[in-house]
Amino acid sequence: MGAVGSPLVFAVGILGNILSFLVILAPVPTFYRVYKRKSTESFQSVPYAMALLSAMLWLYYALLTKDLLLLTINTVGCVVESAYLAIYLAYAPKQARTFTAKLVCIMNVALYGAMVCVLQLLVKDGESRVTIAGGIGSAFALAVFVAPLAIIRQVIRTKSVEFLPFWLSFFLTISAVVWFFYGLLMKDFFVATPNVLGLLFGLAQMSLHLVYKNPKKKGAVSEVQYSIGLLVWARLI
Which pLDDT belongs to residue 79? Predict the structure, then answer.
């Protein structure tokens, strides 16, 4: 792997941190609305639990590789996504709160904890540990592309980009480009490879804004916010 100490690598990594931070903050209006209304309405927690898991996976990988720039943005990601989930749990109805608590305990605590324990206790070779952790992070990053695919299908079906905020699509696309080059410069293909698909899906989202410039109908607030949650979940790094 390359060296973060290189001025070019450091500059690209800092830019990636800034762009990813802007994407992470995209759901803030959603949770401000939840706080003001003291209700989660029909908002769903799954995208935020998945986004937290993604940040946790990359945080562990960053700790293993001692990659400071990956470490900083994913630490922020863990804190912010945890805050989103805490707000959701505070104002969600009982059934949704129970479901979310179980989801977080199973996925973000039990499964993630088991993965870390297995790698730390059973995989003695440090390089093998990095390879496995990077492979898991990359596989998860590729799997979350189900999210933007669902939104793209919805946009085409409704002929409306209401579910696809332009600025969020733009930042996700640029972020994928930046992290791809960061991965190349660092010779870290676990970081670079998923961002190739990130760029392709980003360009697909941007092209939909050209095709469907004028929304044909207004989507429900909950549907729009759910789409934003899915897009943020699909943030790779």
Answer: 97
